[in-house]
What does this fold into?
Amino acid sequence: TVLSARTFPYVPVRNMLFADSLIYVATTLGLSVYDTTMQLVHPPPGSLSNLKISKILNLNDTTLLLATIGNGIYVVNKRNWTFEKYNASDRLIADNIYSAEIKGDTLWLGTEKGILVGSVHLLAENNPRFVQFSSSHGLVEDKVDFLVLVNQKVWAFSDRGISVVPITSIYKKPSLPEFYFKKIYVDKKPISAGSTLFLPHDHTNVEMEYGFLSLRNQNITCRYRLSDNEPWTNTNERVIRFASLAPGNYALQIQYSIDNFHWHEADPPMQFVVHPPWWQRWYMHLLALVVTGFIIFIFLRHRYQRINRQQEELMRLELHTLERERNRIAKELHDGVATNLSAIRLMVNRLLRRYKDPLASEVDEHFLSTIKEIKSIIYGLTPSDLEREGLFKGLQHYVERLNRTLPFKIALQVSGDEVYAPGIGLLSFRIIQELLSNSVKHSGASNIYIRLESTPEKLNLMFQDDGVGFTYDDTRGHGLANVQSRIRSVNGSMKFESGPDLTTFIIDLPCR
It folds into this structure.
C-alpha cells in the first residue's frame, strides 16, 4: 500500500504504529486511527488534538503510550480514549520526550533531562516509577534526542555527541544527597541553633538557608511544612522563610526528591518554640485565675457577711420587739390586772366578813394564790431584779420559785464575777427559760443541772437534764431554733449532745 498526499492531504505525519490491524498515525492534528484499507476509523479525539507526538508505543492490548514534546507522556486507553497524563508537574521530571523505546517490561525515555527508565506494567497501572540518568551520571549532555538499545547497551544521541551506557549501570541505586543548613536568620540576624529553635513572641521572622552535598544529583526538588495538618509547600529555592509566627510549638519538616516522585526526609524535624508574651503565659493565666477566684471569694464573703449582719440585725430587732412586748404585757398585768384583782380581793373580803360568811378565808386564799401566779408570770416576762441584783442572783430567785412549783429538781451553780450587763443577762435568762420549757414539755426529766461561769471575755453556760433525749429537727417546733437565734444575735456558739438518758447544752456568749 502506498501512502501519499492523497491519503493524508496536507497533513504531515510525525510517527506511526501498526497494531491490532489498525494504523495509529500521529499528525499535526493529534492522533488518528485507520484500518488497513486506509479508511479513517477514529478522528483525533479533541483532548488529544494539537499534541506534538514524538513516538507512539503499544504498552499492552488495551493501552497506548504517546510521547510528546512539551506535554510529557500520555497513557491512553484504546477502547474509550480516556488517558492519564504525566509531566514535570505530576510524577515525571520532564515535559519534552524526544524518544521512547520499550524492551520487555522496561520503558526508556529520551528527555531534556536525560534518560528516564521505568516499568511498563507500573505505568499501565497508574503507578509510574522512573530512574533518571543524566549528565551528572556521565552522559554527554542532559538532552537526549534519540535512543537505541543494542546488546545490553543504551546509545543516547544528542547535539554534542553519542553516549553509550551499560544498561546495568542505570539500575544502580544512586546515593542520596546529604542535606545541611547553611545559615539561620532571625529578624535578619544570624544565629546558631540546635535541634530546637526558641523564639520570643516579638522576634519571629525566620529565614533558613540550606543546601545539599551531592556529586550526581543536580535537579533536587524540595517541599516543607510546619505541622502534619498543613499542606506541603513546594520550592526550588534553597531558602525557607517564615514571618510573624504565632506563639506555639512547631515541627519543621523538610523533604526532597530527585525524581519528583520519591520523597526523602531531609533532616529530623526542627522544633520551633515561639514563646507567648508574658501576659499569655501559663503562670499569668494561673495568677489571673487565682486573682479572679480571690475577688469572687471576697465578694461572696462580703455578701455572706452582709446577709449575716442583716439577719443578725433582724434577729436583734425581733428580740428587742419581743422584749418590749413582754414589758408592755407585764406592765399591763401589773398595773391593770394585778392592781384591779387586789382591789377586788379587798372588796370581796370586806363584804364576806361583814356578813360573816364562813368561806371568806378560803376565797381570800384563792385571791392571794391568783395574785401570786400573776406576779410570777410578770417576773417571767420581765425579771426586774436582773438589772438590780445581777444575772446570778436573779436566776437563783427564779430557780427557787420554780423548785417550789415544778415536779423535778433544778440545781444551779454559778462561778465568776456577777453579770450586770442587761443585754447578756437578759439573753442568758431567756435561753435558760427556753431550755427549761423544752425539758418540761418533752424530756420527762427528773433532774436539771445548770452551771454558769463568767469571765471578763465570755459567759459559759452548761444545761443538763436526765430526760429521754431528742434528735434535732429544725422543721419541728421553734424552741431550739429560738435558742440558736438568740445565740447567733450576739455571735455566740452552742454545742449539744443528746443520749437516751442525758442531754447537754454548752453555750458560750461574749460579754463585750
Summary: The first strand starts at residue 13 and ends at 19. The mean pLDDT is 83. Helices lie at 120-124, 167-170, 282-354, 360-381, 385-389, 391-405, 422-443, 479-489. Residues 231 and 371 are 105 Å apart (CA to CA).
